[in-house]
Amino acid sequence: MSTATATRPTDQTGGRRRTNRWLLYALLVILTLIFISPLLYMLSTSFKTTAGAAAPAPQWIPVEPTTQAYESILTTSGTPVLRWLLNSVVAAAAQTLLILVTASMAGYALARIDFKGKRIIFALIIATLFVPPVILLIPNYLVVGRLGWLDTLLAVILPGAAGAFGVFFLRQFFLGLPVELEEAARIDGASRWRTFRQIILPLSRPALVTLALLSFLTNWNDFLWPVYVLFSPENQTLPAGLSTLQNANAVRYDLLMAGAVIASAPVLLLYFLAQRYIVEGVGRAGLKG
């Protein structure tokens, strides 16, 4: 009898845990559907006819699936979407590479090297995070114009090649790495630069991948700055170019959604490939120091 009495609360506890687990799964499924439903509807609309995309009643599944929107947007001479896509890839990749180089070296210096004024320099770098980016629009435009970079991809690559967030993020990650690894390398005769290149950077792969993806996304989604500094249709990046498509085809929702799918596909692919590193990098960066 005592055994049966002891078993019953255990069964009840296990039942409550299973119920709570299923409720949690159901909540996660609902949240997932809420977040991805706009993407699914965007994808569905891109395969609709012009009339189907403009229908007042939303249709999640196209009645007459067609690829005419993609054929139109990719073959029209006035909308060089593939050129815009290439420009965005080149600009985002080049700026990301520069950010990784500058942020990793600056972050390592602020995390491991002691020098006069170190705290003041770090405080000034962090202070720039609180400056609204739009305030720097005119100064950056004047600098780019003086250098002769207007209407070139250099104008959307170099101004943001050194950012405070990347320095702060990598500094916090470097502070979490064991100092003993660097001390052992120094005892073996490795220089500071060799230790940084052969030990610190390989151990920092999750943080570097996370920063790379965030930097790539920032440049990829930037709309205001390319509109100001890029004038020729063939030099536009994808967000700026798609805005002209929207102005020219205000009621062609199938074209607009096809352009949005083309713009979203590369970054979604990057996220799925790098999500393991992103979770690890954010989890280990923390707020140490």
Structural account:
This protein is mainly alpha-helical and 289 residues long. It has two domains: 2-69, no CATH class; 75-285, MetI-like fold (Orthogonal Bundle). The chain is 74% helix and 0% strand. It contains 14 helices and no strands. It has helices at residues 2-46, 50-53, 68-75, 81-112, 118-127, 137-147, 154-157, 164-175, 179-187, 192-203, 205-221, 224-229, 238-248, 253-285. Helix 4 packs across helix 11. The longest helix is centred in the first third of the chain and has 45 residues, at 2-46. The chain is flat, with a radius of gyration of 25 Å. The N and C termini lie far apart (58 Å). 27% of the residues are buried.
Concise synopsis of the structure shown:
By secondary structure, this protein is mostly helical. It has helices at 2-46, 50-53, 68-75, 81-112, 118-127, 137-147, 154-157, 164-175, 179-187, 192-203, 205-221, 224-229, 238-248, 253-285. It folds into two domains: 2-69, no CATH class; 75-285, MetI-like (MetI-like fold, Orthogonal Bundle), CATH 1.10.3720.10.
List the topology elements.
Layout: H1 2-46, H2 50-53, H3 68-75, H4 81-112, H5 118-127, H6 137-147, H7 154-157, H8 164-175, H9 179-187, H10 192-203, H11 205-221, H12 224-229, H13 238-248, H14 253-285
Helix pairs in contact: 1-14, 3-14, 4-8, 4-11, 4-13, 8-11, 9-10, 11-14, 13-14
